[in-house]
Amino acid sequence: MRDMQWLLEAIEEAGRTAVKEDGTYWRASYTKEDKAVVELLQGYMESMGMETFFDAVGNLHGVIRGSEDDTVMTGSHRDTVRNGGKYDGILGVLCGIRAAGSLYEELGRPRRSLEVVAMVEEESSRFTASDYIGSCNIAGIMPESAFSLTDDHGITIQEAAVAAGYQGAPSDSKRDDIKHFVEMHIEQGGVLESENKQIGIIRSIVGQWGGTISFEGKQNHAGTTPMALRRDPVPVMAAFIRDLFDWVNLRACDMVLTIGKISVSPGSPNVIPQKVSFTYDARSSDLELGQATVEKIYALRDRYDGDIKVEVIPAWSDKPIMLDMDGVKELEEIVQELNLSYKVMDSGAGHDSQNMAKSYPTNMIFVPSVDGISHNVREYTKPEDLAAGLTVLKAYLKKLCW
């Protein structure tokens, strides 16, 4: 009861740090909103007996030192998307703080050090394509090119980090003391709620393949150019999209496809477009299926390329990431002992865990999102589901550290 009262109040207090002067909701990395939440989280950590410090890129760490050199880390990211909500990311940080503090109070010094981290720049909402620099830094997989990425005002990540008081340079190598990473997160989808499950135990994070497909024709007058004499790229794009979705829908149990943006140039009602394009985002936990989808895209390009020039411009290709299966089994045992309903599932969204899993045994715990809503001010998780998630996290950290 005491844990939940603290957690609910902390969620509201942390949420207030993301409200900007114009009333919008956005906690971007290395901003005054970020500074406000860092000060809040650091205070929480220190009040529960943790030693706090920052790494080079500005991740906030709070640690309870154990009797051994090994470390178990938990936490998530502290930034939000533009007009996002107050649960995504920060919930995992707050639950980690409360679980660690409660365990320390109840059991004393742990065998393994227990460390809570509040990571920067997971969402790429300020620096486009920054790709989880907080977790990349810890895992030792940071590309140096990331620090030259800029925000809308031309400020680089390096410049923003230094201005915020951090070193701003990536670590040279991964930390070798971390033996396990555990991330609690909202589901950000509707599967758990629709199946009436309290807990999601994640076995993998899906692979993602994305980019842009463009179609170039000939700009001309909309009224004086007969249909037979047009080089209009729109019908070709429409046919391409139809064929791609037909192919994906036959495999919809194992993958999803999103066309999130369609662009038309010059974009005038009385002009046949010169060029149109759309973005694609394909996701699957099946590597072969993801690769087959990319092959299908190129096959469709070859089919439709002709009078209309078709070009595929890939932007990212990330393989599925398997999480620690021993941890999945241990979490199942814990959830069963607690008599909670659960589902072993894949994550359809990217998370810091996908980077941590490249260097350390990693597990994720999901709690339901009401109506499947996230990246929205309306995102919400019921208190009883928060309590279930916190209880599971606490039990697993106890098993790993004491």
Automatic annotation (TrEMBL):
Gene3D superfamilies: 3.30.70.360, Zn peptidases. Keywords: Hydrolase, Metal-binding, Zinc. NCBIfam families: hydantase. This is M20 family metallo-hydrolase. InterPro entries: Amidase_Cbmase, Bact_exopeptidase_dim_dom, Peptidase_M20, Peptidase_M20_dimer. Binds 2 Zn(2+) ions per subunit. Zn(2+) 1 binds at H77, D88, H185. Pfam families: M20_dimer, Peptidase_M20. Transmembrane segments: none annotated. Its cofactor is Zn(2+). Zn(2+) 2 binds at D88, E123, H375.
